[in-house]
Amino acid sequence: MNLLYIDPGTGSMLFTLLLGLIGAVFYGVRVAVMKLRMKLVGKGKTDPNRVPFVIFSDNKRYWNVFRPVVLEMTGRGHKILYLTASEDDPAFTAGIEGLKAEFIGSGNKMFARLNNLNADIVLSTTPGLEVYQWKRAPKAKWYVHIPHAASEICLYRMFGIDYYDAILLSGKYQEEDIRALEALRKLPEKEIRMVGIPYMDEMVKKSSTVEVPPAEGKTVLLAPSWGDSAILAVYGGRIIDTLLDTGYHVIIRPHPQSFTAEKERMEKLMREYPDSDRLEWNRDLDNSAVLKRSDIMVSDFSGVIFEFALIYNKPVIYTDPDFDLAPYDAWWLDRPLWTVSALPRLGKALTEENMPKLKELIDECLSDPAFQRGREEVMAETWMYPGEGAKRAADYLCEKYEELVLKEGEVK
């Protein structure tokens, strides 16, 4: 009898056991090395792969939100890694020293890059952190949200900003809404810093330099948002017909998302109402020229209402569609939207009943001085520190960075 003989079944089992032991030892060594590395970093040694400041933009149209902050930060000697989901983002051709732009694609590729960031501070205007596929990266320390409109912070999809660490705001009513949501959801309080609106500060500067051709007669800008509650979804071609009946020149500038989410509707309307000497469609990336050209705006719940009214000091006509708040953070709050109180001070409401009198509404808004006073009130409520937004935002980011680095150095 051969005592060294091992049957095939037993041999296979022993071989598997040996591989398992080798794997366990390898894994244990790897974990020990990682712990040692973290311990060394915790004793004040800098992680050479960590990026101090990252900006994430999910669309090129938000470059105007970030550009003034980028200029202020790089002007102070800081370097910015700018991650964008748009291959043709203006950041790539901005020529700003200290700014490195990177196209990170979309979908899973984009989320894989974001979810593995190694950064001190991540600044973004994108909601939904920790809600869908975008997760807080284990090695990213601090997430800061900056809004891209001068209005409600609670009109993001539900839980949109819950998991940010800090929010940069421009009005006290926004802070009150955030604190109310935190209390209802039993969330820790986020840091809130009032900074103003950097991109609107830049729009003010630009408005004085933009040249537009002299107009013959009045120009009306139709600037709808997108979705089932937006003006083109509710009224369709009727609103365009009614505007053309006023005899004024009409410019239609849909929300950029309309051409993606409502492509068929947009294509149909553009076929039925082609460009002419009385009507034009506008899709410029920069809206400065079209806003300056227009005497009055017709819109719905789009944030561009506040840009038009407060920067260009002009009245608006707004629709009051049946707006379903169910998907939004505002649904949780037992109070009316701030926008509901602001809009009547900026212009007149357009309804099914008064649509035939749209020309009279336009003429009243253009001539009544009460709307000038209303614009001043609304501006005081939603635009703190005009002209100081980029500086104040950069102040916060720099202060927070120094605090985070100091805390890291204190870890033993």
What does this structure look like?
This protein is an alpha/beta fold and 412 residues long. It has two domains: 51-197 and 387-410, Rossmann fold (3-Layer(aba) Sandwich), CATH 3.40.50; 204-382, 3-Layer(aba) Sandwich (Rossmann fold). It has helices at 8-42, 63-75, 107-114, 172-185, 198-207, 231-235, 237-245, 258-261, 263-272, 288-293, 304-311, 338-346, 358-367, 370-382, 389-410; strands spanning 51-57, 80-84, 99-103, 118-124, 139-145, 166-169, 191-194, 219-222, 249-252, 279-281, 296-299, 316-319, 347-350. The strands form two sheets. It has a seven-stranded parallel β-sheet with strand order 3-2-1-4-5-6-7. Strands 10-9-8-11-12-13 form a six-stranded parallel β-sheet, sandwiched between helices. Helix 12 packs antiparallel against helix 14. It starts with 7 loop residues before the first helix and ends with a helix.
Helix/strand layout:
Blueprint: H1 8-42, E1 51-57, H2 63-75, E2 80-84, E3 99-103, H3 107-114, E4 118-124, E5 139-145, E6 166-169, H4 172-185, E7 191-194, H5 198-207, E8 219-222, H6 231-235, H7 237-245, E9 249-252, H8 258-261, H9 263-272, E10 279-281, H10 288-293, E11 296-299, H11 304-311, E12 316-319, H12 338-346, E13 347-350, H13 358-367, H14 370-382, H15 389-410
Helix pairs in contact: 2-5, 2-15, 12-14
